[in-house]
From TrEMBL:
Residues 221-286 form the Signal transduction histidine kinase subgroup 3 dimerisation and phosphoacceptor domain. The keyword Metal-binding does not apply. Coiled coil: none annotated. The chain crosses the membrane at residues 47-65, 71-90, 97-113, 125-142, 149-167, 173-192. This is histidine kinase. It is an enzyme of class 2 (transferase). It comes from Streptomyces monticola. Residues 333-423 form the Histidine kinase/HSP90-like ATPase domain.
């Protein structure tokens, strides 16, 4: 044997081995088609269809084999049962069912070879066998791998070719018809299954992307809040540094030990301030410019509301005359919550009357922004938001240890209510989750 012949023989042997593996390696048993449907009648419809086919094909096959082909009744009954009954478990195990039906079909072809009533009738496959076999191809195409489907199709063609070689004068070409119909059925069902799988993967990917987008939004909001609070904390650190440096000059007869202590405090404050600047550099994105203007607070609310009125939103402000001693972080958070709430009104409910209320009860600061439905319907500037608004509000109240209640009103408006402690230092344990 030459080297080329050996290579060809090895390729053929490898192909036959792959064919055998494909025919003997079924897919994992699983749910039948339409098992994930919400309605019960849809889930049970595959069982009803297959049961109807079996109930119709089994007696018809037995009757035709007995009366038309003149086959012994016991043989006809056994062939009819083996060719149709396995369709019932083909819903969950199509490849084992194919082995039973395919073997029964081939045995039926041999049994009909010398049948007395074979003249002018289909051979080796009967019409009933073709119908049941095509239904089996549908169930195979919906479950098995492409390699297995190709192997089944080739095995069907090989069986038909075998009978064609055995007796060309008896065959009426039905084996060729079955071979073509099997190929079309397998291609169509496999394509439908691949399309369904692609859509399902797309839904899963969209769900994952949405979760990642929400997480990214949360992280961006946290970084933005951290950048804003940097100025607040840096101011306190600078005050500590100045006080510690000036203490020996402001306090007369300060002992040397106390002077060294104040110097150490000033040095630690400078180091902390430098570390904060490095931290801010990490939090700031490449395209983010440093904010040089002072961070706003509740003293800027009147200007904010006036700007909202100029944007076409009839807004009014109710600000308590005495709010108490408010920490800078709470002051900034309250302003940003009102700013984001008014921005949402401008984007999503232009023209809606809005009321802003800020009050304090000695321990907590209450921020309330309520907008009702617009007197005349106006097309919103945006129909869907990025989700930054409420995420940022929740992060701010979480940071200060407060609570947030935001949601639509029965009349079609929207309400944002935030409760923040006046002094964040009073919060012993900031909650880890969002409010």
């Amino acid at each position: 044997m030459s080297l080329g012949d050996a290579d060809r023989f090895g390729a053929v042997r490898e192909g036959l081995r792959e064919l055998g593996l494909a025919l003997t390696t079924p897919a994992e048993p699983g749910a039948p088609p339409l098992a994930g449907a919400r309605k019960a009648w849809v889930r049970y419809s595959p069982y009803v269809v297959v049961l109807a086919f079996v109930a119709a094909l089994l007696p018809v096959t037995a009757t035709v084999l007995t009366q038309d082909y003149a086959i012994n009744g016991a043989t006809a009954g056994a062939l009819a049962t083996a060719q149709t009954a396995p369709l019932l478990f083909a819903l969950t195990r199509p490849l084992p069912a194919w082995w039973v039906i395919f073997t029964a079909d081939v045995a039926g072809g041999f049994a009909l070879y010398d049948a007395p009533g074979l003249a002018h009738r289909s051979w080796p496959w009967t019409p009933m066998m073709v119908v049941g076999y095509l239904l089996l191809m549908v169930l195979l195409g919906l479950r098995e791998s492409r390699r297995t489907l190709i192997a089944v199709w080739l095995a069907t063609g090989a069986a038909g070719l075998l009978f064609e070689v055995l007796s060309q004068d008896r065959s009426d070409g039905i084996h060729l018809l079955l071979f073509v119909l099997c190929g079309i059925t397998l291609v169509v069902t496999y394509a439908l299954r691949a399309r369904s799988d692609a859509q399902r993967r797309l839904v899963v990917q969209e769900t994952i992307s949405e979760a990642e987008r929400a997480q990214r939004t949360l992280l961006e909001e946290r970084a933005r809040i951290a950048r804003e609070l940097h100025d607040v904390v840096a101011h306190h650190m600078s005050v500590i540094t100045v006080q510690a440096d000036s203490a020996p000059y402001r306090i007369q007869d300060l002992p040397p030990a106390a002077q060294e202590e104040f110097a150490a405090i000033a040095g630690s404050a400078r180091e902390s301030l430098a570390e904060m600047r490095r931290l801010l550099a990490v939090l700031r994105s490449e395209d983010t410019q440093g904010e040089r203007a002072p961070q706003p607070g509740l003293d800027k609310l009147q200007q904010l509301v006036e700007a909202t009125v100029r944007a076409g939103v009839p807004a009014e402000l109710s600000l308590a005359a005495e709010l108490g001693d408010i920490s800078p972080a709470v002051d900034l958070s309250a302003y940003r919550i009102v700013q984001e709430a008014l921005s949402n009104v401008v984007r999503h409910a232009p023209g809606a009357p809005t009321r802003v209320s800020v009050s304090a009860d000695g321990t907590d600061l209450t921020v309330l922004v309520v907008n009702g439905p617009a007197a005349e319907p106006v097309a919103p500037l945006e129909h869907s938001g990025t989700g930054h608004g409420l995420v940022g509000m929740r992060e701010r109240v979480r940071l200060t240890g407060g609570s947030l209640d935001a949601g639509p009103l029965p009349d079609g408006g929207f309400r944002v209510a935030a409760r923040l402690p006046l002094r964040t230092s009073d919060v012993s344990d900031v909650p880890k989750g969002t409010s």
